[in-house]
Design goal:
single chain, 473 residues, alpha/beta, Rossmann fold, two-stranded antiparallel sheet, 16 helices
């Protein structure tokens, strides 16, 4: 760990405390301002003068900083996780608010203004987030312009992953890595010479499939020279990212879990799905009503189109607003002769915009004029909130595909069936249909193995932006 990283981590504590004080003062100034006072007169000035209020804010600020520490806000991480920090700030400040409310309930006297408490809570989230953003901006500027705190790295690989890592280091200097040298092969003698001649902090092994003996020697050398050793895991090491330990008698067992989504996480996710689907149906009901009317006026046929998809428990019907002329809708209900399916296969072979078993027909001639707009804006997928309520889908998860597409899956693609399919997912906010299927599965696999409630919320909040700024072909 670089000294500069420790310095910035240490500075974040007083910066957070200062922002909490400023939030408290801003809440007091707002409450006593003429704008608020004329709407609700200030009645607490005698019981809670400014001096007393400031003392309480100073004490509560210390209490809140302690909660920040318990929430992991002062963990030293090299990854750029602004969103994770924001979620932790919201959780920590909310926990502090609950603590204050409990104290008021027990003591019966504390703040005589509910506005002060609520305003201080909201402003604390804003001020602390802003303070951390400024601090991180300063740190990124110093790293990218002066390499202050930047890690000098050697990359060892000789494969495509190595090239990706090198490109990322070059394109994002603010991430804190500076490439000193690249080794296509694990040349231990040359690596040692470079380390002895240059100030090296990290060695990144991008290709772990070198001989076991050479890798162990490299690890020993890193320990000897006090270097950080990092590596890209191979397939088996990726599978062990979610493990659970158990014993049978005195024999230890390690269970390779298919996903991090288990236990209470599964219960919480299902509860969030139900509440989110109900909320979505209520919020979007006016839009859905308008879309239904427009579909009726645009072309003959049903408004809702049921299409077979494959999920965690097998084949099910997804509900979508019909975006195609009825004679082109595939499926047993509308395609008794199979001609629509044959046409779809022909179009997929000629003008699919994706590689792999899943196709995306570019400039699909089967769509109505309204249907093209619905597909582009993803409004055709709003009825899938009903699929979420029924339990066939989740708000967030891998997108479900048709049985004939799933039939062409490779074995490793089928890992997406470890959880329910979703209306949106990590792949959808990372490129939607513009990315190839293999990349989509890799993103979905990462989501499955690293699921968290915070990740779900992040994906849900980013989905509207992904739709609005979607690339077009």
């Amino acid at each position: 760990m670089k000294k500069s990283e420790l310095i910035f981590a240490t500075i974040s504590v007083p910066v957070d405390y200062l922002m909490l004080l400023l939030a408290g003062l801003a809440a007091y100034a707002l409450r006593t301002s003429e704008l608020i006072a004329q709407w609700r007169p200030v009645l607490f000035s005698l019981n809670l003068p400014f001096e007393r209020y400031f003392e309480l804010v100073a004490i509560i600020g210390i209490f809140w900083v302690v909660i920040f520490a318990l929430a992991g806000l002062y963990e030293i991480r090299r990854a750029n996780r602004l969103w994770e920090d924001f979620v932790r700030i919201v959780i920590a400040t909310s926990a502090g608010l609950i603590g204050i409310i409990i104290y008021i309930f027990v003591q019966r006297e504390f703040f005589d203004s509910r506005f002060l408490i609520l305003a201080a809570w909201i402003l604390a989230i804003f001020f602390v987030s802003w303070g951390r953003l400024v601090l991180r901006g300063i740190q990124s500027y110093l790293i990218s312009h002066y390499r202050l705190g930047s890690h000098n790295v050697l990359v060892v690989g000789g494969d495509g992953i190595s090239e990706e890592i090198i490109q990322e280091i070059k394109n994002h200097p603010a991430a804190g890595y500076h490439l000193v040298k690249y080794f296509p092969s694990l040349d231990l003698a040359e690596i040692k010479n470079t380390v002895n001649a240059r100030a090296i902090d990290d060695i990144i092994l991008a290709n772990p499939d070198f001989s076991r003996q050479l890798v162990l020697e490299l690890v020993d050398f890193c320990e000897e020279k006090h270097l950080n050793f990092k590596f890209v895991p191979n397939l088996f090491q990726t599978l062990t990212s979610n493990v659970q330990f158990d014993t049978v008698g005195a024999i230890p067992l390690i269970e390779l879990r298919r996903t991090a989504l288990d236990g209470w996480g599964k219960i919480i996710k299902r509860a969030m799905d139900i509440l989110g689907a109900i909320f979505g149906l209520i919020i979007f009901s006016p839009i859905m009503a308008v879309v239904a009317i427009l579909i009726r006026l645009d072309s003959p046929g049903p408004v809702i189109y049921k299409n077979e998809r494959v999920g965690q428990k097998g084949v099910f019907n997804t509900y979508k607003f019909r975006s195609m002329k009825i004679e082109y809708c595939t499926g047993s209900e509308y395609d008794q002769s199979g001609q629509a399916s044959l046409l779809e296969d022909e179009l997929a072979a000629k003008q699919s915009g994706r590689r792999g078993p899943v196709f995306k027909i570019v400039n699909d001639p089967r769509r109505t004029k309204l249907g093209a707009f619905l597909e582009k804006t993803s409004l055709d997928e709003l009825p899938q909130f009903f699929n979420v309520l029924l339990g066939d889908m989740s708000l967030v998860g891998p997108r479900p595909h048709m049985p004939k597409e799933v039939a062409r899956y490779e074995k490793w693609h089928k890992k997406v069936f470890n959880i329910k399919p979703g209306i949106t997912g990590l792949a959808q906010i990372s490129g939607r249909s513009e990315i190839d299927f293999d990349e989509e599965v890799k993103l979905d696999t990462f989501y499955i193995e690293n699921w968290s409630l915070g990740l779900d919320l992040k994906i849900l909040l980013k989905t509207p932006l992904a739709v609005l700024f979607r690339k077009t072909r």
